[in-house]
Amino acid sequence: MMRTTTLALLSPLALLLPATAAADPFPAADRAAGQRMHAEMCIECHARRFGGEDGAEIYTRFDRRVSTPGALEQQLTACTAMLDLDLFPEDEHHIAGYLNDRYYKFK
Question: Does the keyword Zinc-finger apply (predicted)?
């Protein structure tokens, strides 16, 4: 009886585990819009600083600064401010969603 009760209580919690493990850190991001903005406002600078056609090494290098979803958002805000880009916070969120899908794979 005790085992059945314990299983009955834990079963609903087990349903939450897959959703939590695969949680999207940028759930409202429009990835297509983020990709367009990234192409327009980021690639030129990244290619100039890190080489290559698209400057992707900034995201893939061993010593990259960004290691969490929060750090990615902070870096995007810093770039927006330093380069005086015309981006709103929601635009940065869209770019973060695109970059996460393409390079970072944060959960």
Answer: no
Q: What amino acid is encoded at 28 in this protein?
A: A
Contact 68, 106 (CB under 8 A): yes
Buried b (16+ CB within 10 A) or exposed e, 7-35: eeeeeeeeeeeeeeeeeebbeebbbebbb
User: 54 to each of 9, 48, 59, 99, how far by Cα in Å?
Assistant: 51, 9, 11, 13
Does the pLDDT of residue 2 top 60, yes or no?
Answer: no
Rounded Cα–Cα distance for residues 24 and 59 (Å):
19
Provide the domain count of the chain: 1
User: From CA 87, how far away is CA 2, in angstroms rounded?
Assistant: 57
pTM of the prediction?
0.78
Domain annotation covers residue 5: no
Q: Are 55 and 46 in contact (CB under 8 A)?
A: yes
Measuring CA to CA, which residue among 63, 54, 41 is closest to residue 102? 54
The confidence score (pLDDT) of residue 43 equals 94
